[in-house]
UniProtKB/TrEMBL annotation:
GO CC annotation, single: plasma membrane
InterPro entries according to UniProt: Cardiolipin_synthase, CLS_N, PLD-like_dom, PLipase_D/transphosphatidylase
Mode of membrane association: Multi-pass membrane protein
EC number: 2.7.8.-
Cellular location(s): Cell membrane
Domain PLD phosphodiesterase residue range list: 219-246, 399-426
Name of this protein: Cardiolipin synthase
Top enzyme class: transferase
GO molecular function: cardiolipin synthase activity
UniProtKB keywords: Cell membrane, Lipid biosynthesis, Lipid metabolism, Membrane, Phospholipid biosynthesis, Phospholipid metabolism, Repeat, Transferase, Transmembrane, Transmembrane helix
GO biological processes: cardiolipin biosynthetic process
């Protein structure tokens, strides 16, 4: 024993050096072999090699995506639509409803998303909080069996309290209610709305809530999904949080604009599967049975319905699903691509795809807010936007108040809407939920909305960018360097 202590005392620097070297080598090898993004791999290898032992320890805590492994190991489908209904609803031909060029995109979606493209859905565009919250409130008050609500932010304000009270009243009359709020998003609510809900008997959970610091290292992984499912048969999804700032009567001239969508048909089943999966991951409670998932074929049939599917994405088995769908959409575009995004920071491959579409002769219109609620993101956007303008894309800054809408349409026949922004956080870090829609009517409705925004917007040109003061452009470039972490 004495000799062991003597050896350690005498040679501890050498022992520490060997341990540090082995740990650093193991961590660097793991990063190089498991990271799919070369930038992430290079970054972690550099941290590990240039910060001996500490770098390896940090990688062990924050660099290994255990969340992905956990969620992949769970069974996604808690239950399934009856097979006889599936056969009636499967959509094979999208050329007749959207255009011949979208057949290849449908095949891509079949391979990217866990969900089939199913027909017989209805989808209704809701314009801002003025239309969305009353429709949600009416649906909650009419619920008979179950309510599942998920949001990034559920604010404790006039709108949030009204919706929370409706959920409490539904619970009191015997409706099963579950509310899931992101742990980071919940911090926007002062005081937290979860206290009111829990006091009222509503089962409420926070996604990725730290438990004695265990999940603290995953605070950067957030659920940005927004959905509401009533009785397993009709629902809402899109990009809107629950906040009074989206209501004109409350926010007045400072109202935030946005879009949301009311849906019915088999896509609601897919929404509910998404919620049940996230709820089980968070609480370990499995939601199943007719209370949450209707088994009546009549609940899935919408006359003259449209083909829809959910496309979930996030740092799990669905990593880069939305990224792949957008690349595919840009590759099949023939005439016109319209994009509206509050936070527009596409990565190199998306920039290349947009540039290629523009150079092929496709008219590419990109609308970003003139007034942005995140100043650092706005600075990064301004630093990067010249890459698109130089290749022929048209970029517009909207007038008026901040617009939080996330809209993507191609050739007036295909739409992609939901919670995803076109930035690194949405495309790689957040858990997002979007809808792929094959319907000319909705695409043209969204096109008209975007075109109306463009009609009063300012077009950004290389000349207008160069007229900005040098120090301002330098600041934007410095912020842009940190854009993957904004």
């Amino acid at each position: 024993m004495h000799s062991v202590q003597h050896v350690f005392t005498e040679y501890w620097p050498h022992i520490l050096f060997v341990i540090s070297g082995v740990a650093s080598a193991a961590a660097a090898i793991h990063a190089a072999m498991t990271k799919h993004d070369v930038r992430a791999a290079i970054g972690w290898v550099a941290v590990v090699l240039f910060s001996p032992l500490l770098g390896a320890a940090f990688y062990l805590v924050a660099g290994i995506n255990r969340i992905r492994k956990q969620r992949v190991s769970q069974q996604r489908a808690h239950t399934t639509i009856p097979q006889e209904v599936i056969h009636r609803l499967l959509v094979d031909d999208v050329a007749s409803v959207s255009g011949a060029q979208f057949s290849a995109l449908k095949t891509l979606g079949d391979r990217v998303s866990d969900f089939k493209l199913l027909g017989s859905n209805s989808i209704r565009l809701l314009d801002g909080g003025d239309e969305t919250y009353p429709a949600m409130l009416e649906a909650i008050k009419g619920a008979q069996r179950s309510i599942a609500l998920q949001s990034y932010i559920f604010d404790h304000d006039e709108v949030g309290v009204e919706l929370a009270q409706a959920l409490i009243d539904a619970q009191a009359r015997g409706v099963a209610v579950r509310v899931l709020i992101d742990a980071v998003g919940a911090k926007y609510s002062r005081p937290p709305i979860v206290h009111m809900l829990e006091k009222g008997g509503v089962q409420t959970a926070r996604f990725m809530r730290p438990v004695i610091g265990v999940r603290l290292v995953y605070a950067n992984l957030r659920s940005h999904r927004k959905l509401l499912v009533i009785d397993g048969t009709h629902g809402f999804t899109g990009g809107m949080n629950i906040r009074a700032g989206f209501v004109t009567a409350i926010a007045k001239e400072n109202v935030t604009r946005d879009t949301h969508f009311q849906v019915a048909g088999p896509v609601v089943y897919q929404l509910m599967i998404n919620f049940a999966h996230d709820w089980q991951f968070t609480t370990q409670e499995k939601l199943s049975g007719p209370e949450w998932f209707s088994t009546s074929p009549a609940d899935f049939i919408e006359e003259h319905g449209v083909p829809l599917r959910c496309v979930p994405s996030g740092p799990d088995s669905t990593l880069e699903s939305t990224h792949d769908m957008l690349l595919g959409a840009l590759s099949v575009a023939q005439r016109h691509v319209r994009i509206q995004s509050p936070y527009f920071l596409p990565d190199v491959s998306l920039v290349a795809a947009l540039a290629t579409a523009a150079r092929r002769g496709v008219l590419v219109d990109i609308v970003i807010p003139g007034a942005n609620n995140l100043k650092l993101v706005n600075a990064a956007m301004m630093a990067q936007i010249d890459q698109l303008i130089l290749t022929g894309c048209r970029v517009w800054r909207s007038s008026g108040t901040f617009d939080h809408s996330k809209l993507f349409t191609v050739d007036g026949g295909w739409s992609y809407v939901g919670s995803s922004n076109l930035d690194p956080r949405s495309l790689r870090l957040n858990f997002e939920l979007d809808l792929e829609v094959y319907d000319r009517a909705l695409a043209q409705q969204l096109d008209a909305r975007i075109d109306a925004t463009i009609s009063s917007a300012e077009r950004i040109t290389i000349r207008s960018l160069m007229r900005r003061p040098f120090l301002l452009r330098l600041r934007d470039k410095i912020v842009w360097l940190a854009s993957p972490y904004l």
